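Record type: ASSEMBLY
Status: queued
Input:
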Amino acid sequence: MMETEPTEDIDQPLRDRLKAHPGPALLWGAVLCVLLLLEGPTYLDGLLGAIGYGLALLPGSPGAEAFASASAFFGELPHLLSRELIPNRGYYDGSAWQGTFLGLEPKYAWLIRFLLVYAYVAVLLGWLWYGYVLFRRHYRAADWTPTDDVIDRLRSHYWGLFGLAVVVFFITMAAFAPVIGPTTAEENIEGPYSYDMQYYNEDTETVENITIGEANLGSASRGSGDSNVGIWSYDDFGRFHPVGTLVSGKDLFTFLAFGARVSLFIGLGSMAIAGVIATTLALVTAYYKGVADLIVVLTSDSVQAMPALLLVILATVVFKNHWIAELYNGAMLFILLFALIRWPGLWRAVRGPALQVGEQEWVDAAKSYGQRPTVIMRKHMAPYILGYLLVYASLTLGGVIISVSALSFIGLGITAPTPEWGRAINIGQQYVASQSWHISLIPGLLITLVVTGFNALSDGIRDAIDPQSEGAEGGAAGAAAGGGGG
Amino acid sequence: MPGTAADTATEGTQMSESVVDTVSHQTGETLLDVQDLKTYYEDGGLLGGDPVKAVDGVSFEISRGETFGLVGESGCGKTTLGRTLIQLETATSGTVSFDGTDITELSGGDLKEWRRNAQMVFQDPESSLNDRMTVGEIIREPLDVHEQGTARERREKVRTLLDQVGLMPEHYYRYPHQFSGGQRQRIGIARALALEPEFVVLDEPVSALDVSVQAQILNLLEELQEEFGLTYLFIAHDLSVVRHICDRVGVMYLGNLMEVGPTEQLFQRPENPYTRALLSAIPEPDPTVQVDRITLPGSPPSPRDPPEGCPFATRCPVRIRPEDIDASDAVWDRIREFRDVIRERSRAEQSIGERLKERLGFDTALADSEEIVDEEFSDVDLPRDVREHVEQAATYLSDGDPDAARAYLREVFGGQCDTETPQYYDVDDGRMSFCHRHAQEHVSPGDELRRRGYDTHDG
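Status: finished
Output:
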């Protein structure tokens, strides 16, 4: 597999290696460009939109408008995974479906788009993996690195791979929420009375206009009698609902896809902040020890001594009318709250490994030739604790998703109309025993699946970075299994 | 793994045969002058407490180009001393002048600049290399830190170094995992030499290696010393290695240098009682030779609470006894053991419960003080005055005051060794020993040992 290289070339940096043998890299890069271009407008739309949203928060909103309009411009451009290319909404005029993709039933049109999204993601990830393999084969100077072993172990860890698949499924759902659902949140959930739709009235045998809000009234799932649109069914207006509708008649699948966005945003955001705090403190305390350590121990103990749920409830009430609670319907507030509450757990988890690696002689060696403390921490200590951090963060992330859902369930979480899984469970709980059972059950199952997926992934990572921990109780990473879930 | 063969290829694994003869490179010019150096480890606890006196007043000089050996049992402070010399630990007091500069005063940019003059090779090749970096990155890091030359020149330099320590240039992109212990130590040596230092601290560089590999690493170190004109501080507990490689040796015990002198003289005619005990522990290759080793009683005292007077006093086989007490050697042995026990007692931390009881006026007496006395002295005849002293001490003990017992015993049974810190006596050409017995008024350690029935090297 490894190409034999002449000895004098052994010292080349990566750039020279690429120049010497550009074929595979060029081909790979070209295909990657095509893959990205297929969905380029979406990425630019999302990126510029996010920047514009961020700028709008600043005093005076400098340049926010420009970004918003640029974002809108790219949003209009045609791309592969779009409703315009594969529309699933139309009406049946008595003989054929009008307005749908190739005149197919809305069901199949939606299914094609749905599958295409996952196929695209699968191809993209596969291509990135192939790029890594190419790099290993042609361009990497070392024929073996310690990371290779970790990756190989993860590749044969089926429980971990299952977790990875679930996480990818979930992330894709969140990322492509606007195209993956049979309708959009804006039309169906946020402003149903601002949008019209056409449907075929069988009584009058004409195509009629109706606002989506009115149509939703006719597609509600309320448990009794005719008032139910269940899994994999059409409503009276020719709209397809893959997992049925809510009590309000809104599409549950669309609700779930956008709900995934919120959950993921809060989970990843809070874990990113908590992870940065935990890593920084673990490195600093392990390097300097003494008073620095004592201060952080006391601080983290104090934070952990607070009743977390009560604190969050209190904060949601206190910040109710504060501008920070306006951001993404309160999601930003939750990110900050969960980061504040969860960093001590992460810090404790990585403190042990950090102290261990801080005692290694290579740290002394680096000190002895005058390496700066920040570089020592980053280069000689951080790589050894990031694996553990990943394990604990993905475990804790599941806990955060559950907590957010729980808060929404009791009516304190993300405010309506922004979709949140916990609220769907809450809305549907009185219909659990009726034919409208899907309202509570589907989001509940999804939460279980996602949290299990994150836990499985963290199991896989743990076993990959520390093979001795596999199946064994105790040990630094062995304890990781019991840590999360929240 | 490629390259492993290099370590095992050399036939003739007997170190004594394959190690090249030590050539003295001394120029006589002092490179490192250590004066009364002390390194204490504070507990860091809020309540203070006794610091660990790892290095407790050490003075010596190292000449440019020489190999200075530092021997002693585990925990005697030799590694701490080595680490203090390259400023990995901060000295509590004393000076270390390197080429005339007191490096304990350096900080910030000056210290960083000075660091290129002194490097260290660590004991454990498994722990001294960062496994997540390639060999090239590891060796190049010191060069990067001190920004020597361009990136290409640094890479070139690393390749030269790899060659100089007996590795291959193509090992640049390998990871430490792919190397054997001996090869890893070569990488560590290359890293230490990257900045072309004048002074290298070798902290037991071969003790973690196979004997066959040890010889190769020692040879390599000697060749490199020759090539780069290096000055070594060689820390070891393997005395035969020290005898081979070192020009001068310092013997350490409990943070103090007991004896310093040229290697051969020190090994052939040790003067200090501790050096004698240490050297008598070297295994004799001839099984027919009967050696009566000087086995030291007890264990080294805690470096938090070293003995007043001579640090070796608690275990010394030739401790000076007070003249006013006349007792047999056997009785003195028991007294020493008894004092050890009391010493342990006074060191033992009281638990919170015990302190509370004491405060509340409960009896915290050590119920077993009678037993201790019985155990120690039941089978020897104690002279009357000795018995009285012992009983007095036992009374203090049963009153719950082991400190008083300890002080009392020290007063009545302690000789000069217990009360006065010895000075360094010039015992030989360029050799100094830290022992009261070299003073005019005392019998020399060697004579006293023979009188007390030990075999000695020079007797």
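Annotation: Strands of chain A lie at 91-92, 97-98, 196-201, 206-211, 231-234, 240-243.
Annotation: Residues 1-10, 471-486 of chain A have pLDDT under 50 and may be disordered.
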